[in-house]
Amino acid sequence: MMAFFSGSARFSLFLCIWFTQVAILLVGYGVTHDQKTRQYGPGSLEVRSLNQFFIYALHRICVFSVVYIVGLFLEELQSRRQFLRRVVMADQQHQIIREKTKNSALQRELLE
User: Fold this and answer.
1) What pTM was estimated for this model as a whole?
2) In 7-44, where does DSSP find H-type helix?
3) Cα–Cα distance between 4 and 76 in angstroms, integer?
């Protein structure tokens, strides 16, 4: 699947950074939640504030990630299409040159 996106490394690089960011957020939240729960108790203001911050941060990450992933995916798709157009145009140019060469050789043969 990654070979399809080989035109640019931005999409795959963003996905790697995104997975790392989410993993750090989840691990950090788990560790901090355990520490705050042991230190202040399960119903304390600190634990509730941490939970609210976690939900807020996760929501922002999800919203921005969707926008970036869709944008980068469309940019990669456009880049791939442009690359394939260039390949097709180069192939057509080579085909035209072959046909012209064949036609000129045939004309020389007919004139002789």
Assistant:
1) 0.59
2) 10-40
3) 9
